Predict the structure of Pyridoxamine 5'-phosphate oxidase.
Amino acid sequence: MTHLSLHRHKERGSTERAVLDAILDDVLAGTLSTVVDGRPWVVPMLFARQDDRVLLHGSTGAGALRHVAAGAPAALAVVAVDALVVGHTTFDSSANYRSVVVHGHLEPLADDERPAALDALSERILPGRTAEVRPMTRQEMAKTLVMSLPITAGAYLTKTRTGTASAPDEATEAWHGVVELRTVALPPEPAPTSVAAEVPASVRDFAGARVLA
């Protein structure tokens, strides 16, 4: 595979593995893309980084997922928008962001690897939840496709923008600056069918770590 590189704003790009890991470990969802029957195919997916691979899962009934699991080239794109950068003109406006694109071929996991991989996915999204509920049944496992996307040098690229609005190159009284954005958690709401007396620790901890400071 040809090493990825940026053509514009090269200073925003990075191939440092620590930068890649930090973004993948902070963002919960990305978009998986491939080509199916000559047409583009893109789907949003939850994911988890585990060492040198990205874990993804879906239904075994999803034909496109079986397509990528069979070896079709794919790319996973992940982005976090951290702020709106309001310029003195709309042309000079932008956003602060962190993004990753990982290219490669997905590999379906063997039956003996899938339970641990699915637990790792769950723990990445909601730490502690696997200990609070029953394990997946054999039937549920049979309906679930688990894949890994290897993270290899040259097959990924990160891009970030930070900072405030650019200094105007013309006389202007237009306000310009930055509006920071944050993802926060609202108080947990039980489902109408939930009979549990209290919110479990995994949910409390997840929500508590994401309240608006």
Summary: Residues 182-213 form one domain. The chain has a mean pLDDT of 90. The chain has two domains: 10-181, 182-213.
